[in-house]
Design goal:
The chain contains nine helices and no strands. Helix 4 crosses helix 5. The chain is mostly helical. It starts with 7 loop residues before the first helix and ends with a helix. It is globular.
Length: 206
């Protein structure tokens, strides 16, 4: 463990320095929050997370790194810390908020030390049930979006194939009578529309 707080502006120069790197990490945190939020109690707790706080917490855990020689490795370790914290909250059975110091050394007043996070990749019955609930929520979103689209337009047809559990893009494109390139364009439009619908639905629930 390094004896001193690392110079993050120098270490993260590969990502434009400290300020630009943390902006990119905050943008990544927004994506992670959106990905892991949902209709469950934990999913709604995820939706309320502050991306900037996630970045601060990730930086606090950097003291665990043995070396800061590789700036890219540090940057991606920060991303892993962000995703791990959100994933743990998504699966947590105890939603009591935790606070951590944002630098090595003496703890910040009002914070407390936390141990290593639990293994969030170990499946359990609660995780299976939550995944099933998430899948139902996502399918309901697709159906709702389908009802908002014009009948028989490409977006509507694509959603129908997804709900029928077709997964191969080439097969779906063939079913729709379009090229794979055209499929990609339609798929991106569907993703944007469903994402916006999910955000609006969760904002009402929070």
């Amino acid at each position: 463990m390094p004896p001193e707080t690392p110079d993050l502006d120098r270490i993260l120069a590969c990502r434009g320095g400290y300020e630009q790197a943390t902006e990119k990490l905050a943008a990544y945190a927004v994506i992670v929050i959106r990905k892991r939020s949902g209709p469950t109690k934990n999913g709604l707790a995820v939706a309320r997370l502050d991306p900037k706080e996630l970045v601060k917490n990730a930086i606090a855990r950097l003291v665990e790194m043995e070396s800061f020689d590789d700036g890219e490795a540090v940057f991606f370790q920060l991303r892993r810390h962000i995703d791990n914290e959100v994933h743990c909250l998504q699966k947590s059975k105890n939603l009591e908020p935790r606070s951590v110091a944002i630098a090595a050394g003496a703890p910040v007043e009002g914070s407390r030390e936390v141990g290593e996070p639990e293994d969030c990749n170990a499946p359990d019955a609660a995780d299976v049930l939550e995944r099933e609930e998430e899948n139902k929520f996502n399918r309901d979103l697709l159906r709702k979006q389908q009802s908002l689209d014009k009948a028989n337009n490409h977006e509507n047809v694509l959603i129908g194939h997804i709900l029928d559990e077709w997964t191969e893009r080439s097969e779906i494109a063939e079913l729709m009578g379009i090229t794979v390139e055209q499929y990609d364009i339609v798929y991106k439009r569907v993703c944007r529309a469903v994402r916006d619908l999910k955000d609006a639905t969760l904002r009402k629930a929070v």
